[in-house]
Predict the 3D structure of the following.
Amino acid sequence: MARVDYYAIEQGIETLLKADTDLSEANIAIEEELTFQRGDTILIYLDRRDAPAEEQTLSAGTRTRLLVTFSIWCFHFGMSKKQDVLERRDDLIGNTEIALMQDRTLSGTVETSWLVGGEFQTGPNPEGKGYGSGGEIQLVADVNAIT
């Protein structure tokens, strides 16, 4: 049976981000629950996989091409004014996108990858002072499941 090691791809993303000096202050984690904390947090989640019929080859009985989507959430939490939190969020998203574009194979775990968009969230700390703001980077990875 064909198998893709999705967790290894998540680890490849994590390794790539942790190696980037512009992200050295960020807490980077795979599939963890978000908690309000100070500073930068990057969370990596596996979202979905698709196997479009038009992307399959004649060897489809032994090989399936998958497009796997990950959500990489970049959050900044701070006690400063809202504008500062939003600017720090933007810097974190930008640095994360640049790191992901540096190695489209995600540490050698996929054929290639690309960015496709994402959502934003902003709000006050539900536990008291401060703000949190995050942006999602949707990353699509092209992988082959081979028997």
User: Anything to note?
Assistant: The domain at 6-146 is CATH 3.30.2000.10 (STM4215-like).
